[in-house]
Specification:
Elements: H1 2-11, H2 15-22, H3 43-49, H4 52-60, H5 68-80, H6 82-86, H7 89-98
Helix pairs in contact: 1-7, 3-5, 4-7
Region (Disordered): 25-45
Biased composition (Low complexity): 25-42
Pfam family, one: DUF2388
């Protein structure tokens, strides 16, 4: 049940909605300070997006290969999302890949 909710949550969100939901972005945040970015992703969202390759290795190795980016994304998601707190590392990695 938790896995289904997490997968639906991660896969059903656009990049900006994903950033707002998981990164804890504030409504008053300005894009003026992000001169080198597209403005559609926050720094926190990038933590999750950059973990895709590590997540793929983790899933493919049945949890034996754990990359630093995946670890950062797991920590970040569990700090900012209640559904992620109850999900296993494998479930979160699969959800990252599914979006």
């Amino acid at each position: 049940m938790v896995r289904t909710a997490l997968v639906l949550l991660l896969s059903g969100l656009s990049a900006s909605a994903f950033a707002g939901s998981f990164a804890g972005t504030s409504a008053g945040a300005s894009s003026a300070g992000s001169s080198g970015s597209s403005g559609s992703t926050s720094g926190d969202d990038k933590v999750v997006l950059q973990a895709r390759e590590d997540a793929a290795g983790f899933v493919a190795s049945d949890g034996r290969i754990r990359g630093a980016r995946l670890e950062a994304a797991l920590r970040h998601l569990r700090e900012s999302n209640a559904a992620a707190r109850d999900a296993s590392d494998l479930e979160i990695a699969q959800a990252i890949l599914a979006r």
